[in-house]
Amino acid sequence: MLTTKHRPLYKFHGKSVEGLYIINRHWPDVMTTKIQKDNTAEPVLEKAEPLFAAPQKNKVKIPYAEKEGRLVHVSTVERGLKCNAVCPVCKTPVVARKGAKIRHHFAHYTATDCNPETVLHFIAKHLLYQKLQKALDQNQPMRITWKCKACSNMHSLGLLENVTKILLENNLNGLRPDISLRDDQNNPTAFIEIVVTHRPDKEVVEYCTRHHIPLLIFHINSAESLEALELYDQIYPAVVLFCTRENCPSCHAPLFEKHLFILNVSCWRCGAPMQLAAMQVNHKLYGITHFSEEDKQIAREKGVIFREYFNKKSRQREVAVACRNCGIVTGNQFIAFQKRLLPKHAGIYRGKICLKCRYHIDLDLNTSTETQK
Ligand SMILES: [Zn+2]
Ligand SMILES: [Zn+2]
Ligand SMILES: [Zn+2]
Ligand SMILES: [Zn+2]
Hints:
Strand content: 25-35%
Largest sheet: 6 strands, antiparallel
Radius of gyration: 29 Å
Oligomer: single chain
Helix content: 10-25%
Bound molecules: zinc ion
């Protein structure tokens, strides 16, 4: 009999999915027929040590073990010791627990101090490695898509593009990412870290930022998250630390295209016509704070007046656009102008800027082009 305990609901890509449904789709007969035929527990199960106990509070029932040098799912082996499998980490025999009440899983047969987190980590790493290696052999592109933490845009990339080698725990300048992908020059093209309880290695994160290499992080904390690694054609990392934009040479943050806008407006105080200059970066408008010297020069040539004033809020002297008639400054916040003015106007593409350290890579004055909205 199947009980609801066999059907844990879990989230996958935002949708609730039944664990059993997925298992059945992948291993159709094994699971159902075995359970129906076989209701009595073998005495050997009583002696078995409690499982690959849990990381944190929940016990993870690990559904994989090693058999003949390969990882096998519990649904593909006979129950009890007849499964002929071992723990992939400590290599001692395991029993396949395939009763009617608890999710099917493997347990160490004898007492062991084998660390369950290490086992989870090991299995996840190898399942993922096998999947990527197979995709590489079969020329599958393995496209991943993610929301960028650095620039908030959606990015996507073919993970196996230019990859010729996939390495497990390979040492690279003292770093040991769980999986690293290499091109034909043996340069890393991406790193993968499996996270069970610990955060990903800080040095690996820093290395990836510095060298502009994608870092994929997988969170493995349940039987389902392990099975998902084997089950689906694509891979779904929990986090991708990578911005596909060009890197700032100074601080390694992403560089954004900047567009200079010169807008004909009326002075907010005296109503006289005036020129307002703003820089649009990643869908936002900024004031002179985000102008390079050349950007300012272009703005001046187009009739914009800049003036120094004392900003009461920041308690600092700042430069901002001023009214030619009454001299009042318009601060460097342009949120109100965003919707009203931008759609009607053309900006001048001026190159790139780093929003973090405000490093500018200016386009040559002659090649700066007006872009029509
Ligand atoms: Zn073990
Ligand atoms: Zn990005
Ligand atoms: Zn920077
Ligand atoms: Zn005015």
